Amino acid sequence: MANAVKIFKNNMVEIERLRVDQIETEKRQSQQRKADMVMLADTFEAAVGEIVETVSSASTELEASASTLTATAERAQEVTTTVAAASEEASTNVQSVASATEEMASSVNE
In terms of pTM, does the model score above 0.90? Predict the structure, then answer.
């Protein structure tokens, strides 16, 4: 009977040890899962941060290009206006010369 009690006691001790081991294993696994999730979240955050930085940089470059294009368009409009005015003046001058030539031709014929 003492032997059976001793075996029963040893079994109880072993069961308790296994239970404690299982709890510790579950705790380590839980901590590892948390660490893995934190690492995954950090990696994701870094990747998203890089994407945001790239998009921000591209946006800044696009804004600069748009400003340059706007300035170029404004300058082209100014030049076009100047050319149109010069063209109109040249046309007026051509008409004046034509009119003067016609008058001169009339004077010569008289």
Answer: no
